[in-house]
Amino acid sequence: MKKLCAISLLLAFLLCGCAQNAPVEREIFAMDTLMTLRVWGDDDDVAAAVSEINRLDALLSVTDENSEIYALNRDGTAEFSLDTFELLNKAVAVSRRTDGAFDPTVYPLVEIWGFTKEEQRVPSQGEIDAALSRVGYEQLERELDVTCVSMDGKIDLGGIAKGYAAQKVVELLQSRGIETAFLSLGGNVQTLGSKPDGAPWLVGIADPSAPSQAIACLRFHDSLALVTSGGYQRYFEENGVRYHHILDPKTGYPADSGLASVTVLAHDGALADGLSTALFVMGMEKATALWRESDDFEAVFITKDGAIFATDGAASLLTDCECTVIER
Ligand code: ADP
Ligand code: MG
Fold this sequence. Notes:
alpha+beta, 3-stranded antiparallel β-sheet, binds magnesium ion, binds adenosine-5'-diphosphate, T-fold
């Protein structure tokens, strides 16, 4: 299985630039991560995609002093452009569906743990309690009737912005007549259409205990967003304990739900991204209950002991790996 993924990715790489119908490929650093864009179009199409990502990054970044989110967090009030407003609405919708497991007002917590700074540290319980009192998506929800928002809390769209950007890039490419593209925005994969040669898309799910290797592969032909959230992606260690960057908005601590990673498959990139963070916080039992009452996503769960569970729609795309299928 692992070999299959590695060989396929390698072949895809070798074929770039020499086969007929080859994609134009570009790597960029944006949204604090490495991104790869593969577009079956021309240089102008890729340039347009890159500008779209940079435009959204400039609006949504929590650390860029010129962003709209930074303005809200600094001033307690901001006038949002339509993109930021749309994404905030999508974020709040995910919060509502997941009973606040995904919460875009989590920033006071992210700040005290230092995840957007050079240095991370375990905050005191007093600091956590003070930050928790400022977290709660309901305050943002009440403000979202209009694009001018005032609130006491602080917003961080890091758990959903890359998925939204991938979605917007796909829509932009479609409007330019592009039928095929493969985007990987720091682990957020979004495909557009099918490969011209009829070969399937193969996307590996990282092994949480050895992230440069794939623990499973998903094989499919059409447009899809696949987003993984995991405790192995960003973390620090203090006194031998590992603290990762996905926080439980109810406790103020890194989520500890028994999962090592969650991969969400959906047609909407922002939904896949927001849900992947949320399901990781919720744990498998609550996540599965949410899946049973939904019809717009599928998921693959890797538990801390390395077992793979997949909802039936996701299991049908998994190749050659042993997984337990979660039925409706
Ligand atoms: P990544 O962006 O690293 O691929 P995620 O999509 O899961 O992974 O997003 C994690 C980021 O989201 C964190 O770095 C933080 O900025 C923010 N975040 C952390 N916990 C939550 C949460 N419970 N709800 C919403 N955003 C969160
Ligand atoms: Mg996410």
